[in-house]
Write a structure and sequence with these properties.
With about 190 residues, the protein is mainly α. The chain contains eight helices and two strands. Helices cover about 65% and strands about 5% of the residues. Belongs to the PRA1 family.
């Protein structure tokens, strides 16, 4: 009887920081490019009151899954506008913090290497949280940011509730991931 081969393990190869940044920016642009056409968001489809609470929930869920990237852009734009009206410095500082979150947390695929040392995920997360708290405290923009995000969310919720979603067709994978249809895989 021959011994079984050792299990195969996959190890990611650490990349330099500038490669992590460029890959993160590429992932961000790929994510943003998946938005639905704005004309489809605004002009196509009819707007009406839902007939029941269950149809309201289904319509909202379908619209949120279908227009998720568009809604994210709307909320971000409202938050940015609120920060511009408060202080341009606040917009720059909070924008830099958001960029740090996108690059070093959400779109990073490989371990972060700084000065030949691998930085752990907890350390990166702690740094990002502390930087975010500092930025909001430094710019006194917590109220303005909350108002901007709230207005953006309100606009998206109103659109999701009143836009009739009967003619929207999601890709099968999007519908399964969004929980709109079940999967046969168990």
């Amino acid at each position: 009887m021959t011994p079984s081969p050792p299990p195969i393990t996959y190890i990611s190869i650490p990349l330099p920081t500038n490669d992590v940044v460029s890959r993160s920016i590429h992932n961000l642009t790929t994510a943003i490019s998946s938005h639905r056409p704005w004309s489809e968001l605004i002009f196509s489809g009819d707007f009406s009151l839902p007939e029941s609470f269950s149809s309201l929930l289904l319509r909202s869920k379908t619209n949120f899954n279908y227009f998720f990237v568009n809604y994210t852009i709307i909320v971000s734009t409202c938050a940015a506008f609120a920060l511009i009206t408060a202080s341009p410095v606040a917009l720059i500082v909070v924008g830099a913090i958001i960029a740090l979150w996108l690059i070093f947390h959400f779109f990073r695929e490989d371990p972060l290497i700084l000065w030949s040392f691998q930085v752990g995920d907890r350390t990166v997360l702690l740094f990002l949280v502390l930087a975010s708290v500092w930025a909001i405290w430094f710019t006194n923009s917590a109220v303005n940011l909350a108002v901007g995000v709230s207005v953006g969310l309100l606009l998206c919720i109103i659109h999701a509730v009143f836009r009739n979603s009967d003619e929207l067709f999601l890709e099968e994978d999007d519908a399964i991931n969004g929980g709109l249809i079940g999967s046969n895989l168990r």
